Amino acid sequence: MSELNNSITKLTEVFKEVREDHSTRIGELEKRAARSEDAPNNYVAANDNNPLAAALLDSREIKDLTSTFRGKAVVKITGERAAITSADTTVGAGRSAGTSLVPGMRVAGIVTPYERQLTIRDLCTQARTTSNSVEWVKETGFSNNARPVTETTAKPESAITFNLLTAPVRTLAHIFKISRQMLDDGPSLAAYVGSRGTYGLKYVEEQQLLTGNGTGQNLNGIVPQATAYAPPFTTDAEQAFDRINAALAQVEQANAVADGIVLNSTDWRSLLGIKDGENRYIAQQSPFGVQVPRLWNLPVVTSQSIPAGEFLVGQFANNCFIFDRLDTEVLISTEDGDNFSTNMATVRVESRLAFVVTRPEALVSGDLSVST
Question: pLDDT per residue over 286-344, tens digit each?
Fold first, then answer.
């Protein structure tokens, strides 16, 4: 009898455990049904705008979770859903900052293109003017009749003639349009635009100083005024070095003393690489020397502003003069055109100068390549 009672007690306990387990499972099924597509309050559907939440709820690992779960569950999101977190983090063509949960680190500053080294202004003598033009008097003729004379005889008469020349002050300028919001939100942008605008102005200034044709509002540059290359002697087996040497002799024939040579930087590199018949570099500084660039005992100024294949030699300091009327100026204004109504600002970069070449015969330009 006691064994029967024990068996009934065990069956009762087992039945109780099974009933509790079934009750738990039924409760979980009811919760899942509440999240199904047929349920009136679909949680996943309510979160369609959040693809990450939808992906989590659709995963088997999440669906298998119950109130009795203990430990951890790992959900792996692959395919298109992985793009939610692995998309490009930078903004650009076809990209959006909203495709990334973690914004990329922004490096400070703006990457600026390389700027040309400007050297021609440094060759010239620089002065200032307060007028809109510069005038100078040039001797144009000298009849020298000086000679030995006997006592009490009339002395010979000589004559000098002059001419008044004028160089107008020219304006170099350009403008940029920037929104007021950009200036407010990125204050360093105005400084960047001013810096790049100043470089652009100096870039054009160097071209004008060197090759300006003097027409319209252009400066009258050095090369158009320089004397054309006409060698005073011939050289056997002529090389580029020989042409420069002959040009220096041409300057000396004008009673001037050359103080510099201007070459395109590529041409100068080519000259440095010339070797003799035994493959020895002619230039003493090739390839490991550190000497200052010199040719025929004169300093060489390299510039990308002079066309490749051309050279310019002569006396620069005493013949090329820059008269600055207005140093480079950067101004920002909101009162230009329709700036007020369009919420824009205008950045103006401007300078004014006159350029004078007093004795063109002291400067010689020509072709560096040897005629065959």
Answer: 676 667 788 999 999 999 999 999 999 999 999 999 999 999 999 888 888 888 888 89
If one counts the domains in the chain, the total is 2
Give the integer Cα–Cα distance in Å for 157 and 162: 17
What pTM was estimated for this model as a whole?
A: 0.70
pLDDT of residue 289: 67
Residue-wise burial string across 194-222, b where 16 or more C-beta atoms lie within 10 A, e elsewhere: bebbebebbebbbbbbbbbebeeeebbbb
pLDDT over 90 percentage in the chain: 51
Task: Name the token pair of 34.
Answer: 């509440």
- Average predicted confidence (pLDDT) for the chain: 82
- Does residue 311 form part of some domain? yes
The rounded distance, in Å, linking the Cα atoms of 214 and 227 is 16
Residue range of the domain that includes 200: 120-147+156-367
Query: Could you tell me where the DSSP H helices lie in the chain?
Result: 2-34, 43-46, 51-58, 60-63, 83-86, 120-123, 180-185, 187-211, 222-225, 240-253, 265-272, 339-342
**247-256, 279-288, 326-335, 342-351: which has the highest mean pLDDT?**
247-256
Whether residues 169 and 240 fall in one domain: yes
Instruction: Kindly state the average pLDDT of the residues 221-227.
Output: 96
String of b and e for 240-268 (b: at least 16 CB within 10 Å)? bebbbbbbbebbeebebebbbbbbbbebb
Q: In terms of domains, do 141 and 279 share one? A: yes
Please give the share of the chain, as a percent, with pLDDT higher than 70. 73
The backbone torsions φ and ψ at residue 201, rounded to the nearest 5 degrees and listed phi first, read -70, -45
Per 3-state DSSP, the chain is made up of helix, strand and coil in percentages (nearest 5) of 35, 25, 40
pLDDT of 120 strictly over 70: yes
Residues 130 and 40 in one domain: no
CA 133 to the chain's CA centroid = 33
The verdict on 132 and 24 lying in the same domain is no
Residues 301 and 350 in one domain: yes
3-state secondary structure of 282: coil
Burial of 332 (0-12, 13-18, 19+ CB in 10 A): middle
**Residues 161 and 254 grouped into a single domain:** yes
Cα four-point dihedral sign 53, 59, 64, 68: negative
